[in-house]
Amino acid sequence: MADSMEEYIKENTDKYIEELVSWLKIPSISTLPEHAGDVRSAAIWAENKLLALGFPVVEVIEGDGHPLVFAEWTDKQDQPTLLIYGHYDVQPVDPLSEWRSSPFEPRIENGSIYARGATDDKGQLMVVFAALEAWTKYRGALPINIKILLEGEEEAGGASVEKYLYSHGRRLQADAALICDTHMNSLEQPSIISGLRGILYTEIAVHGAKTDLHSGSYGGVAPNPVHALCLLIARLKGEDGRIHIDKIYDAPVAVAEEEKDFWKENRQSLEARLLVEMGVDQLVGENELSPHERLGVRPTLEVHGIRGGFTGEGAKTVIPAEALAKVSLRLPAGMDPNQVFTVFAKAVGENLPTGYEVDVRNLHGGAGFSISPENRYVKNAADAIEKTYGRRPVFMREGGSIPIAALFDGILGIPVVLMGFGLPDDGAHGPNEKFSLAQLYNGICTVAEYLDRLRK
């Protein structure tokens, strides 16, 4: 029998890794219809894990999309209730050629586990599962009431979980929510995320002639939607990184002086790290601003792909009839994605070259989120991190989006603690995604400690 909970966690870490490997092998890619069965298998895996932990209520909730998994263990009337959220779906793996090993055959190397979903979000959910197991198996009971909500559509817009939240808010009511789906500054300097940007994901389709045309017969007089799309995008965002859309910079973002001081102290090391991670020799965009501000506070406009015309091997002299671009905007907390879409669509129309028609589609979106570091549940998280890491965490913004955080805040009216254990170089959404095994262990200890600190 282990002499402490930390020793129990250490003795069982290999088992947690084996369990994580089995979960990572399931290709639960929510955006690809051919993987619908795999997504459901990943949900069943989570259901079985929660049952094994002893949760008296575990339910796979079917709906129009991929299933949700709900569990609760709420037998302590005098203790607070913590709602834990995570997602078991993963991103597609393209480009497959850039993976050093199969994305669904987990590989352990240099202290990390490599696989799609390793850090986003199965590995971080395993942190939570293991911390709960440490309490149920070593201590014999959970210290507080726990509710768990897992979804299988986070990487595909999250429509099912949003619908469930609106219709079953009372069932999900808690005193606070915990999300482990973010990253820390580094192993040496832990951090807590105090703000997330929102997202607006759009599709722009530019139309020219009624059919593809021969460039020899029509070149010089025919509209070319690919060219028009390039001009349009360049007008929406300049080379200097500035976005030319009305009111895009209007939302005020409050930043504490302590956070601004960290930006200054950490600027050079962050710039150096980013250059290495991206494999480039200079950063682009609003270079007069700190990269921390550009990554976590400022709005962005990014083009994710352009389709149109001939892109195969060899040559084909075609003028395409249509070109399409996938474009997203990351938005500071306080900006409504639907309102931004209205001004975005207006800007597209105003900047479209003459001689073309355009369709702008709102594919999905989610609001940003922020929380005060002075919130009690956030302070408890900071204390738990300091206990594990021996160093006080800094508070940071993260450029990524977790729309459910804003929904918990707005609909349930509860504080949301963003205590993730990924690292900046984990490569979430990219080839060779990984999760540090040191962070797996540290995370388990931290979450276990956090649950203890929430007890009255």
Structural topology:
Blueprint lengths: L4 H20 L11 H18 L3 E5 L6 E6 L7 E7 L19 E3 L2 E3 L7 H18 L5 E7 L7 H9 L1 H4 L3 E4 L11 E6 L1 E10 L5 E2 H4 L6 H12 L20 H22 L12 H6 L3 E9 L9 E2 L2 E10 L5 H15 L5 E10 L2 E2 L5 H14 L4 E5 L4 H10 L3 E3 L15 E3 H17 L3
Parallel strand pairs: 3-6, 3-7, 7-17, 8-16
Antiparallel strand pairs: 1-2, 2-6, 4-5, 5-18, 8-15, 9-13, 9-14, 10-12, 11-13
CATH 4th-level superfamily of the largest domain: Zn peptidases
Number of domains: 2
- Main CATH class of the largest domain: Alpha Beta
Round the mean pLDDT to the nearest integer and report it. 95
Q: How many DSSP E strands?
A: 18
With strands numbered from the N-terminus, the spatial order across the biggest sheet is: 1-2-6-3-7-17
Rg is: 23 Å
Cα separation of the termini: 28 Å
Please state roughly what percent of the residues sit in beta strands, choosing from under 5%, 5-15%, 15-25%, 25-35%, 35-45% or over 45%.
15-25%
**Count of discrete alpha- or pi-helical segments spanning 4 or more residues:** 13
Q: What is the CATH architecture descriptor of the largest domain?
A: 3-Layer(aba) Sandwich
CATH fold-level topology of the largest domain: Aminopeptidase
Shape: globular
